[in-house]
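During the second year of the project, the team shifted from modelling isolated chains to modelling whole assemblies. The rationale, set out in the original proposal, was that interfaces cannot be judged from single-chain predictions alone. As a representative example for this report, we include one of the complexes processed in the last quarter. Its constituent sequences, exactly as entered into the pipeline, are reproduced here:
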Amino acid sequence: MRRPYDLALGLLTAATAATMAAALWLIFVVAPEEQVMGAVQKIFYFHVPLAAITFLSVFSLLAGAAGYLWTRRAAFDHLAVASAEVGWLFCTLVLVTGPIWAKPAWGVWWTWEAKLTTTLVLWLLLAGILLCRAYASTPEQGARIASVLGVVAALDVPIVYKAVDWWRGQHPIVFGPGKTDPLAPGMLAALLVSMLAFLLLFALLVAARARLAAQEDRLAALVEAAVRSR
Amino acid sequence: MKTYAFLFWGYAAVWAGLTIYLIALGRKLARVARRLDALEGRGDAGGRRAT
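Output from the structure prediction step:
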């Protein structure tokens, strides 16, 4: 069982590294420099994919959390714990790269604008899920509470996505209705390849973290069996 | 030139975050695999060759 999984993870790692290298080449060599913002705009090729994959993580968390609450199968909980942790990591990087762009673009590191505030709420919800698991009195209780919080976190995603439309924020719109200027071809290719690289990275991290959760469960069962047999 | 400094810190933050997480995850996976191998008597139950 371990070997095919190891092989799959190895292939995924190689594909992620190759795609990430291609993305960096497109970002720094091929994509033209934006006329107004200059080099700072290039943070966008990481910031936007990180934000998109954060949303994907939360949908994956929703699938795991709802599946666990419905069936109580451990595999769903492993998916939920992996998605929450990776989603929290990606959301943290979104909140770090955003202000680095905002300072030269808006003149401030942070403003309580709707999209930023709802993203911070999402980060807090994901952090809450991780804390629930860490400090619950039993793993089952932690999994149950974290699953409920996972469903709540998923409700925040459409609010983050629509925040600019609903509250007229100043955050730029990159995709969907309301988007102003089309991207230059070199910029679009860099963004799409970067998106693919982060998607592969997400798959790799979730697969590895879910495996760790499964192995920790197996280890706990073996330790319990050894204690009982004494 | 000031704008390049912002760009550098942005990318450095992303790579640092990802690298720290990957190292922590890899170490945890290795530790749990070692303990499982020890408890399962050199781990051929898991499909890994005895070393």
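Residues 185-229 of chain A form the longest helix (45 residues). The CA atoms of residues 8 and 204 of chain A lie 9 Å apart.
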